[in-house]
Amino acid sequence: MNPVLVTGAAGFIGFHLAERLLRAGRPVVGLDNMSAYYDVELKRARLRALQEHAGFSFTEADLADYEPLQALFTQHKFDLVFNLAAQAGVRYSLQNPHAYVRSNLDGFVNILECCRHNGVKHLVFASSSSVYGAGTKMPFSVHQNVDHPLSLYAATKKSNELLAHSYSHLYRIPATGLRFFTVYGPWGRPDMAMHLFTSAILEGRPIEVFNNGEMQRDFTYVDDVVEALLRVGDRPAAANPDWRGDAPDPATSNAPYRIYNIGNNEPVQLMRLIETIEQATGKKAIKSFLPMQPGDVPATFADVDALMRDVGFAPKTPIEDGVQRFVDWYRGYYGV
């Protein structure tokens, strides 16, 4: 059995995916550049957990450096690639745009080139709900046009979808893009609201509540995301025989290309999230209300009908259960 490549393996979703693959007996090659965008020790701790599995090997490299990436593909003959590595964060992209160009554009083209020249049978890549940008028709559907991103991060994710489609069309590489909706859970990123709010509430610090608490997010528990990834990974994208150029469906193609939403299909008000964390921690939050931040969108809400139809699964973990699991992990990991 050829190993599965998981880029971003020391990251939040990549770690959980690699662990599930390893527990299922599938060998995994993990790749990560160990960026200092957030706490590197958390990334190292995730890697230590993965290295307890005999089927795991790790390479520290940057997607934007083509030669070591090509050497890895040549060595391992991957059939299945999960590209989860990226420079994340909407607000960070306002201050550091070139980091997004290097990782999310240069790095993604290198992934596509390696897939092209090494016979990869399925590329699954991370997109984002942020591509819906200025759109307000909800729930967001993969069949909607998404040409109005509100941040550079969103624009790079939309670009990933376009680049993947071009390679799928030219070289018949089956490619599936997944638009993640606010993923959370144990081992989550410290720059995300779940981690920031929990940390501040437990330490008695104020939390920053943007858009005066009127934000809505389709919070999606990480185990559900991984289940969707596994099911999609085992189903290589295929051409849609009914696709028409005079009425093009953005989610499919006459090339082997597909886009799915991965969301909980149940948006949660920011104030409800805070109340749920308060219940899980047993402490009240000190709130500092702030206006909407540049690049943010007021609400996200995923239509997951296509995912349910094609792979028989849609995320379903209630926010109360997911938050409790996160808080329990947080207390254990940080010794609170």
3D architecture notes:
- There is one protein chain.
- The protein contains 11 helices and 13 strands.
- The chain has about 325 residues and is α/β, with parallel strands linked by helices.
- The strands form 4 sheets. The chain has a 7-stranded parallel beta sheet with strand order 3-2-1-4-5-6-11, sandwiched between helices. A two-stranded parallel ribbon has the order 7-10. Strands 8-13 form a two-stranded parallel sheet.
- The protein starts with a strand and ends with a helix.
- The relative contact order is 0.14.
- The mean pLDDT is about 95.
Number of strands: 13
3D shape? globular
Described by strand count, sense and barrel closure, the largest sheet is:
7 strands, parallel
The Cα radius of gyration reads 19 Å
Average pLDDT rating = 95
Low-confidence stretches: none
- The arrangement of helices and strands along the chain is EHEHEHEHHEHEEHEEEHEEHEHH
Instruction: Compute the separation of the termini in Å.
Output: 42 Å
